[in-house]
Amino acid sequence: MQIIPPKSGTSFQLKKEQVLKVTDIEGSQVSDILFFNNSDVKEKLSSGKTMDYEESILLTKGNYLYSNRSNKMVKIIEDTNGRNDFLLAPCDVKTFKHFYNMDGHHPSCFENLYTHLDKFGINKDEIPTAFNIFMNVQFNEKGKISVMPPTSKAGDYICFKAEMDLIVGITACSAKDSNGGSFKPIGYEIL
């Protein structure tokens, strides 16, 4: 298993039919993940297309994640926690200023995604809303959202089967509220 240290990220290629397993090693840790078509990075993960086709805002085993061109990118084939969504965008400097009144630099999922995806020719303006693994966003009948601590336990995992050759960007989330107040590593392996 490869380890993504707290508040950091990585990127790599995933071949069609390979399975990517993402593990919450210590529990209560969110991971943002993105997928791009390895042959044409302008084709990328789409929250809107995915929710349209899957007819759900909560995605788990049996669901596909779709691209902006309405193509299946991955299928979720295992999910021991079952709480994942597209409801919030990757955190960034302005997010930390707004929610935590923090000035200056702070590691963020947005920065960790674009800096690690740069080697594949993907720049910051091409980063879409990420798929939030283990994120626990609750909402009421009026649509008001609140970020609660993740329900994932140590060892919980999700497995994605690639439907095309992909470039993957993945993080160990850097937003305190998203992770129940602490920052922990995320594990991943290609099966």
Task: State the main characteristics.
globular; 14 strands; 191 residues; six-stranded antiparallel β-sheet; mainly beta
Could you describe the largest sheet, including whether it forms a barrel? Answer: 6 strands, antiparallel
Helical residue percent?
A: 10-25%
The helix/strand class is mainly beta
Strand arrangement across the biggest beta sheet: 1-14-3-12-7-6
The separation of the N and C termini measures: 10 Å
Radius of gyration (CA) equals 15 Å
Shape: globular
> Low-confidence spans: pLDDT under 50, at least 5 residues?
none
Strand content: 35-45%
Instruction: Estimate the mean pLDDT confidence.
Output: 95
How many β strands by DSSP? 14
Helix segment tally = 3
Tell me the number of structural domains.
Answer: 1
Order of helices and strands, N to C? Answer: EEEEEHEEEHHEEEEEE
Topology:
Elements: E1 2-4, E2 9-14, E3 19-24, E4 31-37, E5 40-44, H1 47-54, E6 64-66, E7 72-79, E8 84-85, H2 93-100, H3 109-117, E9 131-133, E10 136-139, E11 145-148, E12 157-162, E13 166-171, E14 186-190
Antiparallel strand pairs: 1-14, 2-13, 3-12, 3-14, 4-5, 4-9, 4-13, 6-7, 7-12, 8-9, 10-11
